[in-house]
Amino acid sequence: MNKSLLHLLTCILLLASWAKAGLAGDWILFAVDATVTLSFIFLLVRNKSLSHSLVSFVPIALIIIQFLISYHNPTYQVLENKDWAKLEIENSLAQETDIEKIVMVSESFKNIMVLSKTNPSLSHTVFFDFKNRYFDKFPNSITSSAKLIIKYENLITLSPHLFLPTLAISDKSTYLHFIHKVCQLSMGLLFFYLCNKRIIIRRILLMFSLNTGLLAMVGIWQKINYIPSDTILEILGIWDAPEPRYYFSTFTYKNHWCAFALVSVYITFALLIHNWRKYGSECLRNIQTILLFLSLCFTIVSIPLSGSRSGSLLLVLSIFIVILFVLRSRKIKRLKTWFLYTTSSTVIICLLFLFVNKLHRASQTEMITNLKTQVNGLKHGESPLRILLWKDLCNQISQKPIFGFGFNSYSAVNPIYQSSEVRAMRSIVLSNAHHRFTPLIKYGHNDWLEKISEFGLVGFLISLPYLLKLFFIFSKSPSIISKTLIISAVVFLAYSIVDFPSQTPACLLIFSTVIGLAAKYSYLSQKKFKLH
After folding, report:
1. Nearest-CA neighbor of 485 among 513, 465, 457?
2. Residue 194 neighbours by CB distance under 10 Å
3. From CA 179, how far away is CA 166, in angstroms rounded?
4. Ramachandran region of residue 435, left (φ > 0), alpha (ψ -120 to 50) or beta?
């Protein structure tokens, strides 16, 4: 039964990476949920002793409890038809004398009313964004339209219990989104309990590595042959990319592809080191080693080719980490040898970027242009947008540091704390747009700050045991594979400082799974080490 469950879990993981990285639709998310839930049920029914070792689920259980409490303690509500009637929008607009205000308020409230029925959370985001734009444009307005905005805000604002966790808004979509995240995070625990042999773990890692190599090949082919078109579905000819400039392979966002690929680079490196230690030079004739090496090459090339600056930087750091790892493991202390390895690595990195530049010059040009723009902005005292978003997030956290604003609250609540600098940058985007739209900010480009703003310091402390476990495994494990997998998880967490890879299901799934496999491989290695 364990073997069948492992096959099922591995298949659903690989499928998620091909299904628009888990964003192909609700079907793939519910498929993951169903697979995880059924696996847990089978484990509990067939393995009675498992119930005595469920302490590893305690942090997840506490996060679930925090969410359930917050779900029944919302900060905002959705207006019913009778509440919309109380607003008397038409009467307020009839008393307004400024035609520009009338048009702005009328269009915004029509949009908010429609969204409140289909997407309550987004309706609140749009309202607070509209409120910012209105008072930025008419800062001292006290006319009927301004009073209407304040009246609407008072109607949607509730009085939550101050000493309990809160949620921005309690709606079905938030509840389902939370279930999806819990199931994705639980994947690693399932692999931990189901894998009972190290060879099984290595086979699973081999599947991940080869799968990423195939995805990288698809991405490289797409990048080289891409022709802009409004009629072509960019991702495998099946799905549309929200922004064609930023997608890579089956991932809608190149940075998230890089987070996924970097984890796979470490997986592949771990398996190659294992093969070398076990078979020596004979492994060079092994078909598995050849496939792993090819997968590694394609995956490494795909990272700078994607045009991601953060991914390219972390790749360069990863190469030096690998060199340091090799030197330390071989106990090399001669300065000359260290210099030789470092110089060789630098040459390899330069050759890599020259090759990518030859392969697709536009990717490198875009990275260099964006970098120059940000450097010039810094010289003139202009902070990059992400820095400004992080400042806003820190301000947001300071308002509710204990329990935060609740799961998935960032997009709904952030406009309230959005600085004038961020709003000014967004207005520049609007002025250069070819058609009218509302440039809302959905994520804070920093998973750490965003999650602390949602779950507070309490949520951070609840998850702290998992983070400490990573360092414990790394320090105690006798296995090179488990240590390398932990490094890959740490690199993923480092990436989360400058981006939001956890919002892509395929990324969160591989991160969770790698930690579970690293922990189990370490446990099995220590067990075998004691027997010997």
Report:
1. 513
2. 22
3. 17
4. beta
How many Cβ atoms from other residues are within 10 Å of residue 104's Cβ? Answer: 17
Determine the Cα–Cα distance for residues 360 and 369; give it in Å rounded to an integer: 15
| Dihedral sign for Cα atoms in the order 314, 316, 319, 321 | negative
Length of the chain: 532
Mean pLDDT on 455-475: 90
**Cβ–Cβ < 8 Å for 316, 349:** yes
**Contact 251/21 with Cβ under 8 angstroms?**
yes
pLDDT exceeds 90 at position 283:
no
**CB under 8 Å, gap of 24 or more: what pairs does 290-296 form?**
291/210, 291/213, 292/206, 292/209, 292/210, 292/268, 294/213, 295/209, 295/210, 295/212, 295/213, 295/214, 295/216, 295/264, 295/268, 296/209, 296/213, 296/265, 296/268, 296/269, 296/272
pLDDT computed for residue 436 by the predictor: 47
Alpha-carbon span 522 to 486, nearest angstrom? 10
Predicted TM-score (pTM) of this structure: 0.92
Phi-psi category of residue 237: left, alpha or beta, with phi > 0 → left and psi -120 to 50 → alpha: left
Task: Place 6 in a pLDDT band, splitting at 50, 70 and 90.
Answer: very high
Question: How far is residue 457 CA from its own chain's centroid?
Answer: 20
Separation between Cα atoms, residue 253 and residue 242, nearest integer Å: 9
Which residue shows structure tokens 């809160």?
166
Helix or strand holding residue 169 (H, E): strand 167-169
Q: What is the C-alpha to C-alpha distance for residues 425 and 217, in angstroms, rounded to an integer?
A: 36
Helices (H), 119-197: 120-137, 144-156, 172-194
Q: Strand, helix or coil at 242?
A: coil
3-state secondary structure of 383: coil
Which of 43-52, 55-64, 210-219, 502-511 bottoms out in mean pLDDT, i.e. has the lowest? Answer: 43-52
Angle subtended at Cα 10 by Cα 302 and Cα 463, rounded to the nearest 5 degrees: 85
Picking from 208, 298, 206, 182, the residue whose alpha carbon sits closest to that of residue 12 is 208
> Rounded to a whole number, what is the largest CA-CA distance in the chain?
87
Handedness of CA 418, 422, 423, 426 (dihedral sign): negative
pLDDT in tens, 101-139: 888 989 999 999 999 888 888 899 999 999 988 998 888
The secondary element (H helix, E strand) that includes residue 75 is strand 74-76
In this prediction, residue 461 has a pLDDT band, given cuts at 50, 70 and 90, of very high
CB 446 within 8 A of CB 419: no
Cα distance from N-terminal residue to C-terminal residue, the chain:
30
For residue 157, what is the DSSP state? Answer: B
